[in-house]
């Protein structure tokens, strides 16, 4: 679908001097998705002024709740009787790169949900040698967007932004967006150990963390685990909830569920360790455990992943352990347990 605001950004970034100035003058006819802003310095070049933060938040909310739009910084305007902007002067800003950095830093912090696709750019020079800064706000895709500065939901009206009730915007967006949870399998201990029944071997322990990676709150998050039921698995695998807010329910056929406290919610960005999984690999009895994990929130469909140990991942882990056997550190244990489960090893 055509995006006029993105096309305008591309056009402005390709012009300079008198051509850029003329293009800004032409933009007046496209003012519904363009907003002109005068940069108000804070006095501290490393801080965005309160006035500009408020303008940025309202504009991101208003444009994201519509079809998207463009903020052009460095243009002085006045408002006509019919509510449209009238350009008074195009002066540009003293340090375009500094303003761009400040806008990019604040753009993801001034609305809820955060609009991570918002991006600012510095144009080429105006005839006076200064630059404009252009902020592109794409159409929102995660439901109504609220300004955290004004604590209101905004929409574009003529060449300004007006507030509207949440219910009105929710109807425009359709049904509420579904929560999105992520699962972090955090490797921990990988060490030699012993078991009274099975002798010596390797002990491995991982922690399972649930995280809200979406833009809306997740209510009643849960995790289900299906553990293999063969003899080796039932003897050498243990699982439990982390306590506090997580409640463990052990079911039949190796299926267990962990549910967060009833009625609780995970705000965006929140994470919590729900439980731990411990495995024991006795010497001379190598096995290939597979743990099926499902996770979700409320009545929304769950996501699934499988945590497994393969012949290849076992060989890689043991090879690394043997190299560092006599001087193994906690960081080495983390690396080896990541190798064991075939997880990423870069952090």
In short:
It is built from eight helices and 21 strands.
Can you offer a commentary on this structure?
By secondary structure, the protein is an alpha+beta fold. Helix content is 25%, strand content 36%. It is built from eight helices and 21 strands. The chain has helices spanning 4-13, 17-26, 50-64, 96-107, 166-173, 231-236, 311-323, 330-341, and strands spanning 34-37, 69-73, 75-79, 85-90, 111-112, 119-122, 133-137, 146-147, 152-157, 160-164, 181-195, 199-212, 218-219, 221-226, 237-241, 246-250, 255-260, 265-266, 271-282, 290-297, 303-308. The strands form six sheets. A five-stranded antiparallel sheet has the order 16-17-14-20-21, with no helix packed on it. The chain has a four-stranded mixed sheet with strand order 1-2-7-6, sandwiched between helices. Helix 7 (311-323) packs antiparallel against helix 8. The longest helix is centred in the first third of the chain and has 15 residues, at 50-64. It starts with a helix and ends in a 6-residue tail after the last helix. The model has no long low-confidence stretch (mean pLDDT 83).
Quickly list its features.
four-stranded mixed β-sheet; single chain; alpha+beta; 347 residues; elongated; five-stranded antiparallel β-sheet
Write the H/E string, N to C: HHEHEEEHEEEEEEHEEEEHEEEEEEEHH
Which percent band covers the strand fraction? 35-45%
State the share of residues found in helices, binned by percent.
10-25%
Number of helices: 8
Total E-strand runs: 21
Q: How does the major sheet shape up?
A: 5 strands, antiparallel
Poorly predicted runs are none
Q: Please give the radius of gyration in angstroms.
A: 28 Å
């Amino acid at each position: 679908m055509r995006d006029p605001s993105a096309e305008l950004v591309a056009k402005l970034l390709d012009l300079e001097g008198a051509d850029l100035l003329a293009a800004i003058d032409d933009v007046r006819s496209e003012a519904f998705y363009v907003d002109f802003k005068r940069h108000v310095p804070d006095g501290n070049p490393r801080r965005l002024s309160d006035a500009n933060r408020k303008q940025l938040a309202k504009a991101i909310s208003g444009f994201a709740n519509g079809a998207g739009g463009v903020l052009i910084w460095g243009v002085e305007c006045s408002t006509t009787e019919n509510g449209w902007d009238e350009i008074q002067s195009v002066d540009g800003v003293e340090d375009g790169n500094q303003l761009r950095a400040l806008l990019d830093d604040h753009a993801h912090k001034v609305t809820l949900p955060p609009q991570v696709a918002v991006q600012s750019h510095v144009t080429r020079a105006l005839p006076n040698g200064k630059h404009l800064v252009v902020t592109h706000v794409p159409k929102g895709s995660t439901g109504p967007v609220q300004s955290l500065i004004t604590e209101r939901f905004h929409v574009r009206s003529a060449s300004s932004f007006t507030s509207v009730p949440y219910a009105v915007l929710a109807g425009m967006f359709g049904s509420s967006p579904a929560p999105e949870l992520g699962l972090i399998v955090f490797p921990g201990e990988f060490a030699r150990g012993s078991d009274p029944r099975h002798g010596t071997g390797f002990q491995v322990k991982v922690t399972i963390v649930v995280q809200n990676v979406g833009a809306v709150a997740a209510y009643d998050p849960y995790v289900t685990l299906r553990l293999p039921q063969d003899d080796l698995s039932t003897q050498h695998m243990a699982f439990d909830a982390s306590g506090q807010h997580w409640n463990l329910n052990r079911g039949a056929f190796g299926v267990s569920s962990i549910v967060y406290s009833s009625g609780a919610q995970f705000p965006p960005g929140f994470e919590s360790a729900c439980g731990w999984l411990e495995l024991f690999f006795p010497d001379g009895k190598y096995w290939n455990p597979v743990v099926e994990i499902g996770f979700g929130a409320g009545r929304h469909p769950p996501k699934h992943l499988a945590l497994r140990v393969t012949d290849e991942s076992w060989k890689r882990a043991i090879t690394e352990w043997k190299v560092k056997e006599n001087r193994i550190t906690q960081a080495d244990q983390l690396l080896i347990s990541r190798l064991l489960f075939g997880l990423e090893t870069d952090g």
